[in-house]
């Protein structure tokens, strides 16, 4: 017992000692804070090196009319001083085998690009122009600098031209002059605004400064209407271009003045002011009649003809965009051949390709060609479908080397009447002239054209027209195709159209239907343009896959073809051929379309009308283009043409081909080459040589 107490006491003492030591001698120390590792400074990250700017590039287009010599994009040189147009062109010459620069001349004002030799072609000299974008710089080709992104056009021909509605008028008569500028990208002529057309006479004291009779600003479609009161031979030109190139207009004494001059002497009477046809007003009317979907008269027929009218005057902007949008939305082959022919004409007039139009790439030319039966197109009892097949095909790469064309020409000529007409109709005859004129070298065509011309001349009425707006407009286009003009009693077709033009611009009475007013006005615009259909339409090349359709589609005399037919003949079920239902459209003899429906006529009936008393017709042939070969003077290696060639007697209203500028050689094209000492030549050198 005693031992147990001792042990318990000992344990208690130990416990107390341990507690005292813990409580009195031990301090509670807060742990030291853990510091984060020291930051180690890093080297700065360099900014990313920017990618070098891409080398600036320019696009060069070199062409001679419809011949595209070169087109590509090239980088500009590193040295800025080498970034002028000529230096870049020379670098292209070094790397390309498409052409060679063969002659560059240097004058006090800068360098002059004289000659380029296209590969496998003739050297072209003294008529090269250049443009940067849509601008023609007024500086030499070696001082015009490029910065990148531009398109440069180097083209052979003239930058501007005038298209005259007539080259011969009578005293007090009017004509229209349409100013146009060359588009080197599309090889077409666009509207030229902001210029004036000047009427001049030669100055006997200063050949460089003609006597200005009058000036006429062009309107918003590039047209100036000019009335000349006095008899004389005048020269017309664009004032801003120093009247170059120039065009001659002959103003003759009116027949009435010549016959009745003595009776009118001493009287106070005066001739009435002649009517003046306004193409601008006619176009304004058409634009106002265009529907939101781009159509006219809610019909393909009127829309097509309105499109041809737009094409004849190079109408662009929203009007052209809308009509093309309509065509793309209504883009399908018609069961009627003439519909496809008309649509092909319209697309060509609007600078579109009828071989592949729209997203569906519809081929209207194939639709025409497929209707050829070995001798003619479409219905063998009709000739109008053959005439209107030939018109677009001649601008679609077909020519006299195609058997199909020769056969069709033969068929058309076989249908000509003894009086020179086709179908006893002014309309059909005028259309046939336009179809055949491009093939004047084919046997029989020249004689057929001569007879047809005599027929139209004889059919002209004393008011200058051919009975109605439609016939008159087509006859005027036949005049353009033949490069001639007809007048009777001092009046011509333009006078007739002017008398029928209403205040709203339409060339049809206000009481007529909307469709007929659109139709007639469309015809009148094209007729007043001074262009045939072939000249209104642009040209396209025949695709290689179309070549096989150029011959006689009915000729199946090859052994391979016969063998193939024999091999498969037994496998083909006898199926009766489907007959083509041709709608009968009856019209009076002489009409081309049904006046109510607008459809092509298929049958004709004779309607007894009072005979028209024929009056003596005066035919005024257009003067042929005469270019005087200048007396040449030498100045070092430079050729200097005399002033006679600067005032070119360019009588023809239009070049033979629509796809101009016309090719000219140094012997026939008036070009001033400059002189170091001549003040006068310095005055015009920049404009004529290096614009």
TrEMBL record:
Keywords: Membrane, Signal, Transmembrane, Transmembrane helix. InterPro entries: SQ_cyclase_C, Terpenoid_cyclase/PrenylTrfase. The keyword Ion transport does not apply. Residues 544-555 have a biased composition (Low complexity). Residues 556-577 have a biased composition (Acidic residues). Residues 392-506 form the Squalene cyclase C-terminal domain. Residues 254-275, 535-579 are annotated as: Disordered. The chain crosses the membrane at residues 671-690. Residues 1-23 form the signal peptide. The keyword Iron-sulfur does not apply. It comes from the Bacteria. This is Squalene cyclase C-terminal domain-containing protein. It comes from Candidatus Nomurabacteria bacterium RIFCSPHIGHO2_01_FULL_42_15.
